[in-house]
Amino acid sequence: MKENHSIVNSNNEDADIDELRKILGGKKCAGRNDGMKRIDAGRTITYMSEDNDPVIYVENGDTITVEMQDCFAGKIRKKNELLKALPWNSINPATGPVYVKGAEPGDILKISILDIQIGDRAVILCEATDFNRYHFQISEKSMFVDIINDEAVISDKIKIKVRPMIGVIGTAPETGSVLTTLPGIHGGNMDNTHITTGSTLYLPVFHEGALLSLGDMHALMGDGEPTGSGLEISGRAIIKVDVVKNEFMPLPLLETESFVETIASAKSLDEASVLAVENMLTYLNKNMGIDKGETWKLVAACGNVGICQFANAMKTARCCIPKTCL
Ligand code: CA
Ligand code: CA
Hints:
With about 325 residues, this protein is mainly beta. Helices cover about 15% and strands about 35% of the residues. The chain has helices at about 15-25, 270-285, 290-300; strands at about 35-40, 45, 45-50, 55-60, 65-70, 95-100, 110-120, 120-125, 145-150, 150-155, 160, 165-170, 180, 185, 185-190, 200-205, 210-220, 230-235, 235-245, 255, 260-265, 305-310, 315-320. The strands form four sheets. Strands 1-5-19-7-16-20-21-23-22 form a nine-stranded mixed beta sheet. Strands 2, 4, 6, 12, 14, 15, 17 and 18 form an eight-stranded mixed beta sheet that branches. A hairpin with a 2-residue loop joins strand 9 (about 145-150) and strand 10. Helix 2 packs across helix 3 (about 290-300). The chain is globular. One calcium ion binds near residues 230 and 232. One calcium ion (CA) binds near residues 71, 167, 216, 218 and 230.
């Protein structure tokens, strides 16, 4: 018998969701009233699994709005709120899953991120009390950063333009259930700052409908998620989903106007980096038709390896090639 790990909150009257709506209510949202399919931020899972029931069925090629809670499920509201009050077993709620009609095992799901809008206040996990042992000496205090006029207010003097991104985005994994706190071949908690407006992400389809879920938005995050959390925030994304058939690509793979990159996750950053490079070599050779020798030279010349995150139990790295090199 299959075990169902999904935690689906479908109570639309939930106070957290009302608050999110209030926050987002005044925000510009392309297509808000144009009949675009929309998924409520209350429809969440904390495991990605083929056993999760879809919360919406969409057509291949549809554009949809996905509302998302922050990674703390909206539970941290007040300064100094104790972290032990957090629902740690339901951290990183991801909205979904979305069933994309026509997606079959072996296909690729192409996700175009058209727009991201965020709330007015971000939460940061804990406040360090000892900078030399920051991962071990954290206090119980949560911190907040207000977002005013698309700027994160770090202090009176330091204001940084937001660059909203999606930390968790994935399809149902090939086997079993994977927590939304973990990354993998299916995507998941990759925390890649390049998963942002204008980029296109390709993920594997292991099960009918693909079962895409997303959450864990950040108003801003340093590469690596260096202090354990980004500027965690609720919001919504407008995405277009397309099913790609009869094509091979090393996945997950991301493309923007200016670069293409492979993303890989493993127990260590070393392993994740090697995997990302191997995937890039494969991509250039098989998908771009560049011969093996030239591929090796190309990656030696301009394959930029970077850290997506080292904050999770599995680490994520990327290998990025500027399109000007291709
Ligand atoms: Ca994350
Ligand atoms: Ca996060």
